Structure formats: structure tokens, C-alpha cells
Task: structure prediction
Amino acid sequence: MIYLDHNATTPLDERVLEAMLPYLGAFYGNASGLYRLGRLSRSAVDTAREQVAALVGARPAEVTFTSGGTEANNLALKGLAFSQLPGLIVSGATEHPSVMGPLRLLSTCGWRVETLPVDRDGRPDAAFLDDVLGGAPRFATLMLANNETGVIHDVASVGEKIRERGGFFHVDAVQAAGKIPVDFKASGAHTLGLSAHKIYGPKGVGALIVDRAVPIEPLLHGGGQEQGLRGGTENVAGIVGFGKAAELALAELDERSSRLMALRARLEAGLSKLPGLTIFAERAERLPNTVQFGLSGYAGETLVMSLDRKGFAVSSGSACASGGGEPSPVLTAMGVGEEAAQSAIRVSLGKDNTETDVERFLEALRALVL
Amino acid sequence: MSDVSVYLDNNATTAVAPECVATMLRCLQEHYGNPSSKHRTGEAAKRETLDGRARVAALLGATPPEIVFTSGGTEGNHQAILGALAIAPGRRHIVTSRVEHPATLALLRHLEAQGLRVTYLPVDGQGRLDLDDLKASLTDDTALVSLMWANNETGVLFPIAEASAMAAARGILFHTDAVQAVGKLPIDLREVPVDFLSLSGHKLHAPKGVGALFVRKGRKLPPLLFGHQERGRRGSTENVPGIAALGVAAELAATALADSEIRIARLRDRLESELLARIPGAAVNGRGAERVGSTTSLGLGELEAEPVLDKLDRAGIRASAGAACTASGTEPSHVLLAMGLSPEAALGTIRFSLSRYTTAAEIERVVQVLPEIVRTCVAEAA
Result:
């Protein structure tokens, strides 16, 4: 199987596994335990906190470990909302379900949500942003990079504007971290969501970076863990794995991204020779590893299954929205027609993919559609 | 370093069973897909979660769709309590006990600050709940009864079968925090009418960061985390290795339960009787109550626990003073205070918690070492 679905999840890096193994074995102490075994876990968690902080230019004290990106986004949005009176929230139009879900909940308890429309290339409309800012939003939320199209948003300019108005700003950096440089301070974010399993770390762990001057109501109370922001016995092995994955992602960022860009250029060059093929958000700045395209006259779901039988794992959109036959809400928001949206296929490359993988994928796709 | 030691703090966390580690490795290295993906890599991961779900359901006498995987016990308790309030609209009263887990109490205090009414049922000197108190506390405004099955500090059991039947008869939802009970005593939810039950993986030799919430068929419990996963009851990419390992841990617990339950209780009883005989003034908290067989809460009179624990640690024996989750070390345990102990006596208490990996030799070592440590500490304190 040639795995080309790294935006859904990534295989675990062997070096990450090595770092985790002691904490699944002999070092199983509860990080709150006062004896040596507990202190070992505590110091491992502290190290991981430094590693994750370094990946996004934050301070270790600003890192709150969670069970994943979904919890991080939920904690940020509900946490910001439940610590103040209801008002206006500004949201991107192509946000992940883990952001859309809490926003829907908040809209049923007194909050008003204004969505920033995006252009055909998935970029938020700056003029509209200036309009809604007049409504003095309590906070805004915007993803740094889109999971389907890979479009990178200019979060810093949104952050600057919302801060000028005295609002808070959440950035969902789950897809961006490890693929492009992420800087907590420069992004203008007060909170920033991360997930380990998108950067060759384990599933079941993520983090919310939190500017500690911002009032955040916890989702999980009690226990006092994570400076009172997230109760629950720390997932030590998972956190250690996340830390190692973050360290590797930072150390290898340039190398990974230049390799991926070259691979993707090769992939796109091959794709562009196929008749009726459109690359979505082609003109926008995108993650180096992601290409989403439509093939006129084909159903994306069917192509995904045919490619699977030939040994290629790709996706028709977001794994996180799977289950419906609905066209991608991301593409719909970009004004892509229903038929074109239904034909979408997402290829998300990973650090271990090779030129041969890309060539073989192109060959398989050509055989299916030519 | 391997740091060979006697680990008797299994109520804080347990060693991951080797079978669980092997399962995790398979999921981490081979079945690393996202279970929502439509390709074979995703399907292989999905199958792992299905197996895990079936195994956890089997341990509880539940059906697989009644199992929702969570990130652990704290999340399960939160979702059950907050969710029950949401599906019992208009009802603003919760009944619980004074000896619940600190995380649950923290949530309830937070809800109280928002105007919810909470009744904290007392316990007697042995840590036991009086069902008449429960009955008297239920009103037409009661949304939920939330009671732990086994206490984390003393091991004392609450009569969950009777209590949940009492709530059911009044049409009131019932949640049990069974984090310390699952895998330690037989649980059959076909016989016990609780609506929600939370459990934690790392208390039964599965890894940290995974747990499960039983949601009885027909109860439409809303999610804490939104997303399509877990039938819309818990969004987020599934922690596949954790879920699969929890399944294996559940199966191991089910298989071992009949034997290990008795064996562990025997070791614990031996530990207690030997220590009581050798340490003047020692007492076991909750000894007169029905308890899980793995837990001993040992009072050392007015001797402070901290220096004793420190010396035990240096002798290679890991135990704790009450709950690890409140182990700041200075506050007396709310559980022991609720049982009528003085703050001094509560601070002079050590908890030993055994597991199925505990050996007779390890118990023997504690029996040999602790009385001497206590003598030294008494002399130092004098």
C-alpha cells in the first residue's frame, strides 16, 4: 500500500515510538505520584512540553496537553465563550468540523456567528472582515491551513485586526504544524490548536497553546493537571511521543518541506496532463504536501475505492467529515459546483513518500481515467 | 534504569500489560490509519476499534453500541454529568456523595456556582452510604444521581445495584464512576440498571489517555466533543492504539477476574493483618465495609504519612497518601474526613493498592520493612 493520505493521519515515526516505549513499559508512573516513578513521568511530560512549545515558538507554560486536535479546538472555543457574556464570533468558512461543532452549539446559547466568505481559491475575504469587525466580535477563529485544499490563511493579519478591536483569536494549526513554520506570537493567536497524529506522533494526544493572560473555562475540571486547565491523568507515553514528533518536525522542517514541494510539483505536472482535471485553490498559497483535484465526469468516492484496490490510499476529502455522500463543505464554500465537488480527490504526501510513489500513483490514475 | 521495586499504587495507575503493549505496537506500526478513511489502511484501523469495543462491552455485560470511547475517566465523568443535565431539561438538582473523585467534585462545585443544586450524601465511619439517605434526597427536580462504585482511597463499595434501581424507580438518571471497580469485581450491566458508567484504561493495565463511557441503549447523551466519530457521541480521530489496548485489557481482566479477585484479596488481607499486628496504633479505614479486594487505607495514628512514604520509596516500595490526583501532600483527604477521621489522622494515612501482578513476596517485603520505618519515624517525630 502506498499511503498518500497524510492529512487524515500519519504513520508513527520509528524514533517517536522508541521515545514512547519506556513509558509504556517500566516507566508507567502517574505523573502526580510523589515517588520516583511518578517524578520520572513528570519530568518526561515537562520535556515534551518544551519540545511542543519550541515547534510553535511558544513558552512551555503556554502548552496544555489534550486528547487531540478536536479537544484543543473545543477547549479554545467553548473555553473562550463560557468565560464571558455571549456576543459575536467571527469564523472562517472552511473550518474543520471540530471548530464548526462548538460554533453550532454556541449559536444555540446566545452567540452570533459571522462567517468570513472565501474566494474561489479558498482565501478569506479581507473586505468582509473589516465589515464584521465593526460588530466588535468577542473572538475570531481561523484555521492556519485547510485540511482538504491545503490553503494557507493569512492568520496574522486577522489576528492583528481582531486584537486591535479587543477581541481574542483562536488559530487551528492542526494541519499546518510540522508542514510550514508556525509561530504562536507572530500569528496573533491567543490560543492555537495542535494534534500529534498529523505530525508522525501517536493518536490520542494534542495540545492547546494558551496565552495565560486569556480567561479560558476548562472543559475537564479537577485534578489540577495542566495548571488547572485540563483535568485527567496525563497520557504520559502519548505526550512523550508528541514531544519527540514535535522535536523532529522542527529539526527536519526545511528538509521535509522542500522535498514535499518537489514531489508535489512532479505530481501536479503529471496531473495537469489529464483531461478535465482541475486543481482546487491552485493559485492560493498551499501546504507543500497537499493537492486536491477534481476530475470532470468521475465520482471521487469511486475513484478512491478503485485506487485503494490498486494499492493507493488517498481520500475524497476530509476523513473527519466522512460518512455522508455530501459534497465537501470546504469546496462548496469556495463556490465549486456540486458535481465538481463530488469528483474531488485529495492527495496528501508524507515525508517518507518517494518519486516512485508519485509516478506509480500517476500511472494508476491514468489507467483509471484514460 | 529498571528500578526494581514493589509497586503498590495501582489505584493511581497500573503497569501496562505486555499483551496491551503488543497490541498498541501493532496499531502504531501497521494499523496506523484513520478509522474514518475509506481505504484499506483506514479499514484496518477501524477493525481494531470494533474489536476493542466488543471486548469492553463484554467485560461489562453491555452491547458494543453502548460503549463510547473517551480520553479517560475524567472525560467520561464530565460527559455523563453534563450530558445528563442536558437531557433532563428543567431539572436542576444532582445527588452525589462526599467521597467522590476530586475531579467530579470540582465539576459539581463549578455547576453549583452556576446555580445547580447539589446534595452531597454523607458516609458513615466505615465509608458506607445509607440508602435511606439517598431515598430521602431524591426530588422531582433531581436530574441525576452520580455515585462512585468503588472508592479510590479506601476501596469501599457503594451499593450501586440498589441505588441505581432506586433512581430508576423514580425516573431519575443514574451515573456511576466505576473507574476503581472495573476489572476488580464482576460487573454485569444487564443486572444493574445504571444509565451511564465511566471507566479508565490506565487503572486496569491499559495505557493512559483512553477510557470508555457506557451509555445505555436509548439514552441520547450529547457529546462533549463534536464530530461524527463514536456515532456522534464523541468527535475526534479515534485513539486506535489506546482503544485496541483497552479492549485487550478488558479481555485479560475478564479472564483473570475469578482467580485474581480472590488471590489479590488474600494478599491484601495478609498485608493488613500483619501490619495491624506489628504496628501499634495502626488501623484500616473502612475495614468493616465491603471493599474491593485490592485496596488498603492504613492509618498510622497521628504519625505523618509523608516521611513514611519517603522512606518507603527509598526502600523501593511505592505507595501513596490518599489520591494521587490531590497529592499536593498537605491537604487531608476529603474521603477520610467524611468518614469522621480527624485532619491529623487523615494526614497519617497510607494507601496500598495491589494488582494482579502483585506477588506474595512483595507483600512480605512491605510487612518486613514498614514496621521498622514507622518505628524510626515515631522516634524522629518524638
